[in-house]
Structure formats: C-alpha cells, structure tokens
Amino acid sequence: MQISSKSLAAIFFLHLFVLTHSFGQSAIEKLPELILNYNQAFPWEKVYLHTDKPQYYSKDTIWIKAYGILEKEEKTANTSSVPLYVELIDPKFQRIAAEITIKMDQGNGRGDLVITEDLTPGPYTLRAYTNYMKNFGGEAVFHKDIWIRDFIPGQSLGYTEGSDLQLSFFPEGGVLVDGIKSKIGIKASEPGAKGIASFGYLFNSKMDTLLRFETNPMGVGSLSFVPQINETYEIRAKTKKGPWQKFRLAAIQATGFVMEVDPLSNIENINITIQHNSGDTRDLFLIGMSKGGLVYQKQMDAKRNQQVSIPKDDFLPGLVSFYLMDTETNILAQRLVMLHPFSNGIGNFLTDKSSYQTKDTVELEVEITDEFGRGLPGDFSVSVLDSYQVISSLKEDNIFTNFHLSSETSSEIENPFHYFDPENPYAARDLDDLLLTQRWRRFSWENLRLLDNRSVHYIEEGLSLSGNLSGMKKDNSHRLALLINPFSGEPIFHEGDTDPEGNFSFRGLEYYDSVGVFLQAYIPIEKGKNTWKVLKKHEVNLSKVEKPVLENRTFATLPTIFYYTDDDAYLVKVKKVNDMLDQMRKFRDIELGEVTVTGRRSNLVPDKRAEFYQNSPYTSLEITEEMHAYQNIFHFLKTKLGYKVIGDEFSLSPPPILTLRSGSLNTGGVRFIIDGKPTFNNLLAASLPLHQIERIDILRGPNVPSIYGANSEGVINVLTKSGNPNPDFSKLAITGNATMVAKGYAPVRDFYTGPDPEVPLGMDYRSTLYWNPEIRTDANGKAKIIFQLSDGDSEVWVRLEGLSDAGEPVFVMHKIKVGEK
Q1: Separation CA 254–CA 233 (nearest Å)
Q2: What distance in Å separates the CA atoms of residue 626 and residue 91, rounded to the nearest whole number?
Q3: Distance of CA 168 to the CA centre of its chain
Q4: pLDDT grade for 17, boundaries at 50, 70 and 90
Q5: What Å distances lie between residue 318 and 407, 442, 598, 636, CA to CA?
Q6: So which domain of life are we looking at (predicted)?
C-alpha cells in the first residue's frame, strides 16, 4: 500500500524550508532529526482491555482489567494517563449504550459494566481511549468486539457463504511495474469483510494458466509473477461451495520502483532487493521505522539494482516499516514486516490434582518466563470460563497479539494468534502475507503536523473540567471557586483563575461515581482590610468532553455462529437452572400498581438532614441572593450579632474559628456539620460558597447533640442545595455560576465468588467461574491462583493476560477437565 509522495513532501516543506535554506541541508538529511523530534514529543500510547469473556447474556457484568503503556523510541513504560474512558457501543443505533471512566495507576486499572435488559442480542463494541489518544484520531483508539446473546441455540452473526466472493490485491511496495517480478498480497472475504478460504488461477490474455494460488481460512494469501505492460491479466477464483468468479489486477506502470522484502528465507538476516526501470540516477534512501522511531537508514546508488542484507538482531521484536525514498523524501515504495514474532512470554501451570469434580477447589500455580526461561515478575489478570457456555478461541485477539499487531495495523485482524502460534507451521508465512495487506498506523506522516499544532491533547494525570465565561471583556480575568459535592462523602474545594479570554481548566481532579459540580466566577476587590467577592453577570459554560467519532465495525473478528443445539444435554440443563433463578428473582420483585405523578409539594421526600433535632433549631437563617456577595459562611456570620470570628475569615489554611461574643478558644468554638454530617474541622465549611447553601440552622442548649460535649458553644448545621432531597429548581439558576452532575472514576467492585459448596441448594452454573484482576508474579515469575469450580461438569478454560515489569505483554491459556460428582 502506498502513501502519496506529494502530501508527504508538502508536510516536510513546512518543517524543513527554513532549516534547508539556512544550513544547506536537504530534506532527506533533516528527516532523522524530524522523526526524532516527533517521537519525543508524541510517544505512542497503547491500551488493552482484558475482559472476563468474549460473549455475554442480558444482565451479565463485563469485568475489565485495563493495561496501558507508552512507547518512546525503543523504551516502553507504563502510561502516565490516569483517566481511561471506556464505552460500550451499540452499532444498531450508533450510540454509546454505557460508559465508565477507569482510574489507571502505574499502567493498570479495573472496572466493570453491567449489561442492561434493554440491550438486544447482537454484536457490540467496547472501545477505550485516553485524552492523549485523541491527537491521532480513531487510529489509536482500542476496540474490542463482543457478543450479547440469548441462551438459545444456533445464533448467527448473519455471515453465510454465498456467491459474492470479494478479492482485494496489494502489490508489494505499492505498485506493479513492467518487467519486474512482484509479490501481491491477497485478501479474500465474504460480504461483511469476513475472511474465507479460497483458491484460484492467474491467466494472461491468451488464457494461459500462469499460476495457482490459495488463501487460508482467514482469506489471506499471496502470489508472485512478472507483469508485462502489453498484457492483460485475469484471476478466476472460488470458495469451496461458491461458483467461479472473475477479477482484474490493478493497472501496470511502465516505470517505477519495486522493493522486495524477504524476512523468511534466512534465519539471521532480512534480505531486501530494490529494482527499478525509471532511469532515475539520483541517490535512494532506505529507512526502517519501528515503535515510531528511526531504527535503520542507508543511502544507495540508483544507477543499478540493489540488494541489502540486514541482521535481524539489530531490531527489537515487533513491526518494522521500510520506506524507499528519493532525496526530496518522496516515498517510492514501502513494506511492513514482523521481526521475532515468537519472542513472547511462556506460561506453565501446575495443578494440585490430576483430576477434578464439580464444586472442587482448584489450587493452580502459574509460572511466567521469557523465551530464555527467566522468570517474569509482573501484573496480570485471570478469568476462568465454562468452555461449554462461552466460545473462547486460543486464536482470538489477546494482549500479546494486540500490542504487537492489532494495535498497529490498519484493519480488523481475524484470529491474530494464528500468526504467532509456535505450533502452527505456517504462522510465519501467513503473517508475512497478512502484512502485505496492511497499513502501519503506529506512525503516520501526516501526524508530523502535530509539531506545529498548539491545541494538542495532553496526557491527563487526573479528571478535568474546563470551559469559558461568555460576554466577558478581554484582559479581565476572573477568580474561580469549584465545589465538587459527592452524594456520599466530604465536599472537595478548588480555586483557580480564567485566562484573559475567559477560558479555564481544572486538571488533576479526583472524584468517584456521580457528583454535583458547582462553579462560581467572581472578581475579588480590595475594600479596606477586607477582600470582597463581586459576582459578575457572565454565563459560565462548562465544556462537553470531546469524544472520538464512532466508527463502523465489520465484526469480522467474532465467531460466525455459535454452534449450540437443542439436544445438547448440558446446555439444556444450564438453561433450566438459569430460567429457574430468573423466576425466583422475579418473585422477589414488587409489582407496582397505578402510579400517580404529583407536583413537587404533593409528596416530598423526608429530609433527614435535620431530624436529629426534630427540624427545630434555635434559629435558622435562609440564604438569599442578596447574601451571595459574602466570601463564605464566616464572612457572613461575622456580621450577625452574637458571633465573632477568630483568625482570617478568608483563609483556608488554617480556617478561622467561630465563637460566641462571650466565648473563648478553650471550648474549640462553634462546631460545624454539613447536611447533618459531622466535619473534622472548619475547612469544609469555609470552602462552601454561599450560593451553594440553602439555609443555616443554629443549635444551642438542648438542641446540641451530646456528642459535642456540654462545653460546646453551639452547633451550626449548614444545609446545602445539592443535599436537599426536594430541591427547588427555580432557585438554582444564578448568574456567574454553573452547576452540573458529573461522572468521576468508576467505583471498584469485587467479583462474586459463588455460593458455599456445602449448601445443597446453592446451584452455580455461571459462565465465568472466577475473575481476579490483581495477580502479581514474584521475582521468579510465580503466583498461586485458588478458585472454586461450579456445578458444571464441563471443560474449564483458564485465561491469563498481563504485562511484565519490563512492559512485555503475556498471554497464556490452560484447560481443566471437570467430571461429575
């Protein structure tokens, strides 16, 4: 596949014009420095989601372990991004059906998504991305296709082998050139992009048979021949059951360059042959790029054909993209190859028994080593699946194939582990054929424009809230007070400033689940010794989070059909148990009668914030709009008779103390509680802006709870608007402020471990028997896994994925046969 040389030259021109003319260097001479600058400024970030299984039922939970790395030159580190945005995409309506934000810590995070009953059976996509990934568009976003299904036999994705075979052809290097032998990658697919095995013949205009070819079950193959410009060529191909179909090859160029890259015939070296008939005598430049960095470069004489032999040990394991260029950086040919594909971690499992029965406890020792037998310490996650209920293929995408292949190539790869399976004798050949059909998305020449783009998406080290003030005069920045009020827990207070244009951004925030957000903009004005807060009548606009564009998926990576039948005794039994459990759950539900929708005042929710003093305070102060100019509650109460403030009423460190006029510091002053909940100090009360407060209840004498002591000078209960179970929404719209409900990090839940095996009626036929996202191997690469089997007498798959401390992706599977008790 070929990149436009004109567009590349245009990109280089912007960056190289000044340097070229100032220092006399050509574009090709400045290319290594340009690539280095780009790679240092924009390292490549990868994320991967290990889910407990690839297929789910309604009301199932998708258990997730997230892994993230950052590749910079030839070094791999844990990603620095903290928020990871995970979404479940419903392709039927092109919508986000569910979403969570996972908090990443040292490149690891965990979370879960519940599949609601309104999601109909069919294919869905999980996608995950960070804010930084938005710099590169959809190319960098992680996608994983899953299937939500009913417990019925024979559900199909709709692929059927028919008469409409599709063949795509990909000349090595980019084009076919007259008189020069060329290799062509082939991709055979059905409608819908599902790969399919096929075979066919290449004919010339005289209908002479030049060669026969075939593709593997994923539709990947290749052929080689010498094209002639005065000839026409026809391909006739078919599937096993389909009819013969005719196809034409791409046009043959009279002149051009062909680059043949052979990574297979020699164990130690890559052999590259460059041929052309263009008559061009300018020097040629061969460069190799891997992990976004320049790893090989060589200048060659274009007056003759060239052959280059490069040691494979000069490269790290992974994809390498070779480019042939002229002195003006025009790309003449390109080729993607994989080096050291079998350099992966190895997993060995040792069980405590030779055989197991239902309800047994399994003690499994796992040992993870590299290809040289050295132990790999690292962080891993493990799922244990009932293989009779869940189709989990060894060849489907995993963290190893994703980080090395799927995340760096341009299309959906079917059964990617097929190309890395050490027991597959055709793995290396098929992988090389596959790469003929792929484009490398790890590095795009067009992304060099990011070096001149000031509005890049940064690496988020926490949650962010941003926006702007509308209608504001320039060069008139405002102070900002941000209050994050969790529905459970203590409020969080932050301060900041807008820029002269009114833009603002709070970064590095940390909060969980749903929270209320209140933002106030004001200008502080000095009046004597005091600083007054003057509200400005500008509208505060909170920005919506930018999301990547939803992409159409072919779902070619999913199984074609789930081969379950009605007479499968085991599945029939599982279905009966699941139906019975569903029926029991329904019996526990309460059927509601007729529902009457009433007005706000008809039937209020009990307000428990003041029930410990029977909602009868000593006195109560309602906060009105005229009081909003006060900085905080201390600034406000200082003006009321009977109170004095000790310390700076505008300080948060330390916060002031409120006492009675006749009181002393020995008693500790007035105690504050917020919405009926005690606070540890006065900081939270001092940080609350008055716009967020509904009223202030003052308690004295018998109203004071005994927990505050007999010597207490009183208690003040600050009742906030967000804490009112019956809010008056007509009073919430206040200029100079913005409110919203935001979602923070997803709370972490633990996996349900199943009923007690000693309980006779504790039936357990879950498809996921065990899920542990926090497996840590020691310095020798060893860890112990303990889990309980279910009532299912089936085969159990143990699937382990994760990253070693060196950033190496590891995937291993183990099978356990379970007998009936």
Answers
A1: 16
A2: 51
A3: 31
A4: very low
A5: 12, 11, 64, 65
A6: Bacteria
